[in-house]
Automatic annotation (TrEMBL):
Keywords: Membrane, Transmembrane, Transmembrane helix. It comes from Caenorhabditis brenneri (Nematode worm). GO terms for cellular component: membrane. Signal peptide: none annotated. This is G-protein coupled receptors family 1 profile domain-containing protein. It is a multi-pass membrane protein.
């Protein structure tokens, strides 16, 4: 039963990794197009600035996790590739990029909340270029404080021959348990609860107060897109919490689940926004030579102007 489960888990991770590597160029092209389109409405708004940086964090996380955690499991790197004196780097990098993603998701949720509840202040007072730049600095600087404690203890590299799992465990078992449990609580409970409340308030407001002028309303689709991306992060937080409660030698049970969900999260920003938003999809395909640019009208569309 255990061997069969391991075979299935490893197969799923192989498939997940392969799909992620295929989607990686799409994510990179998505970021490139958002940067190219950044001076055209609605791509010149804070929402899309936040999307650019969240997508960059997703790309970096995908590349980093593949290089340092997946390739060794697949036998690409020998055991000696990981040295005790720098084995903290992979786990520190994951913590940094994971929290950069978390702050990106939080700021996008706040952006959608203010756009729906306070559209005038959102557009004219709150989401100024200066505020947006400040939030982006917070997104990339604050995660340093989350990973900093990792450099005050030694880490050892664990490789499970049975499961192929790559695990980094602190030499101090108490530190390992307390740190990762605290991070799992922050990520899996605190952040997810705050963001879930924000999206709950958004959809209640839309349902009870906002009159949608047409089914293809971009602003509402952006809120739905951001919510779906958050659901992926919510699932990742659950896996993090379960993993933190499991002793390092047995953490392989949730390792595969975590990395599969992480693959979904890292690829969700670009794919969800493209799938649910026709104007974004047209801009994307136009750069591939499929459509010609016709622009996105914001006339008489207050919700879209509040993007």
């Amino acid at each position: 039963m255990t061997i069969a489960f391991l075979d299935v888990a490893i197969t799923i991770e192989y498939v997940s990794t392969a799909i992620s590597l295929v989607c990686l160029p799409i994510n990179i092209l998505f970021v490139y197009i958002l940067i190219i389109e950044r001076n055209r409405p609605p791509y010149n708004t804070p929402f899309f600035r936040l999307c650019i940086h969240l997508s960059i964090a997703d790309i970096l996380m995908e590349v980093f996790s593949t290089l340092f955690f997946k390739f060794p499991s697949f036998g690409v790197f020998p055991d000696t590739f990981y040295k005790e004196n720098w084995s903290v780097v992979p786990i520190a990098g994951m913590q940094y990029l994971g929290h950069a993603q978390a702050f990106g998701i939080i700021f996008i949720a706040v952006n959608r909340f203010t756009a729906v509840h306070y559209p005038i202040k959102h557009r004219q007072q709150w989401w100024t270029p200066k505020v947006t730049k400040t939030l982006l600095l917070i997104q990339w600087i604050t995660p340093i404080f989350f990973m900093a404690p990792l450099f005050f203890t030694d880490f050892k590299f664990l490789f499970s021959r049975n499961s192929g799992s790559v695990i980094f465990a602190a030499s101090d078992a108490r530190f390992h348990k307390n740190y990762f449990l605290a991070m799992a609580i922050v990520d899996g409970i605190v952040i997810n609860s705050i963001v879930l409340l924000l999206y709950g308030a958004i959809f209640v407001r839309v349902h009870t107060h906002v009159v949608v002028r047409k089914p293809g309303e971009l602003a509402l689709r952006l809120a739905l897109s951001a919510f779906i991306i958050f659901i992926c992060y919510l699932a990742l937080g659950v896996c993090s919490l379960l993993s933190a409660l499991t002793p390092p030698p047995d953490a392989w049970v949730y390792r595969t689940m975590w990395f599969v969900v992480n693959d979904v999260l890292c690829n969700s920003s670009a794919l969800v926004l493209l799938a649910l938003n026709r104007p974004i999809r047209k801009a994307f395909t136009r750069h591939l030579g499929v459509f010609s640019y016709q622009g996105v009208s914001t006339k008489n569309n207050s919700l879209l102007q509040a993007v």
